[in-house]
Amino acid sequence: MVGEESKIRVVIRVRPNNRRELEQSQRTVVKVIDQETILFDPDEDEDEFFFQGVKQNHRDITKRTNKKLNMEFDRIYSEEDNNETIFEECTKPLVTSVMNGYNCSVFVYGATGAGKTFTMLGSDYSPGLTFLTMRELFNQINALRDERKFDIGISYLEVYNEQVMNLLTKTGPLKLCEDSHGVVVSGLVLKPIFNAEELINLLTLGNKNRTQHPTDANAESSRSHAVFQVHIRMTEKKTGQKRTVKLSMIDLAGSERAASTKGIGVRFKEGASINKSLLALGNCINKLADGSKHIPYRDSNLTRLLKDSLGGNCQTVMIANVSPSSLTYEDTYNTLKYASRAKKIRIVLKQNILRTNMPKDYFIKKATDLQHEIEKLKNLNKQLEEKLQQQQTDSKPFDEMLLNSWFDKIDASYSALFKVQEPIMNAQSKERILYYRGKLKECAERGMAELSLDGVTVDEVSLINSHCIF
Ligand SMILES: Nc1ncnc2c1ncn2[C@@H]1O[C@H](COP(=O)(O)OP(=O)(O)OP(=O)(O)O)[C@@H](O)[C@H]1O
Question: What is the ipTM for the molecules in this complex?
Fold first, then answer.
């Protein structure tokens, strides 16, 4: 995976219609075709309509034609999909990447009321991605505790009207500075945590401190960008090697146009500021998608803060939330366009460099030890080569004479064996002959006795007997 090119994973989540949308029985402007395709502004199902005898494509002839825009994303979640499913497919794999040393980020994007906070924080009956992801992180950490030591600290910041505030301590504004490791929030102290349950209290506290104002679309609209980050330092117990990784979960403020929230005064300034930072974010996404060298991160505090979560060495998932209702036609269209731009971003992933606290002397000693080891092995190698050569020169040439004398001895013993076997076989066959001859003699004598009774002479019997010799 080191140096592997990867693109931002972009998924779309379509939430169910809310009460207002149902009451106004608006038409649906998005149609989930399959898990990767969404159709924006599909044709409406309408009865056939004739005007002056001619069939009309639309009942309302003043109405513009539907966009019927087919768009493809890494995954489309429909209103039936819950936070658990999105966690399993989108952020659970990120936890494994974090444990392997990669920085990871999750963004939720969309207009006010589209379901960003519901996705990130969830509700009482359906915990959101932040909790589910952190619970998985602690599961994986606990499984590795024998091998590694972990130090975990979290931060929860909001960017409101371009100012960075600490949501856990309700302090700020905090300054952003840049050092060799990237952007640093000065004065930010990480809050150590030891389990996922502890996180719930911290998230609740942070959310209470988050700037919220009602909008037309959402009674509890978050008017700031919330950046939740987990910083993990892992120390290998055997080697002492350390590495630090960061998991960021970002709930962006609504991407709706400032005018659409009908805000005036402070609310208008707020909307304009949200738009400024989202515009800057959009510009960075566009430049990254085009492969530009210069990315305008410095255009807003949000993009400065997210620099290493977007284009840097970071595995990123963007969840674009949309409402299905025609009430939010423009916002849904803009969100889908924004998301399809983000889909084009390609980044090169690098595993975080292992850092160590070992002093310089440790490495000098290690290098000297290794040098000695090399010398020792070289000497050993030389000795073995010499020994091998010695053995080759010492070894006696092949003794053909000796071998031949042994062959002669074997031949001699075989012929001696045959010599002994021959008389034995002869003796055995003679014994058999004698046995049969005895038998025949008995026969002949018995026959002679009978013949003599029939008038045959003894000489004739002897003659028969002599012919029966084998
Ligand atoms: N997938 C969903 N299923 C059920 N209810 C949802 C879903 N998504 C959002 N909602 C409900 O819709 C309302 C608005 O959602 P949410 O607060 O998450 O919007 P938001 O995008 O964070 O808006 P804002 O930018 O104004 O903060 C909430 O009451 C929330 O419970």
Answer: 0.98
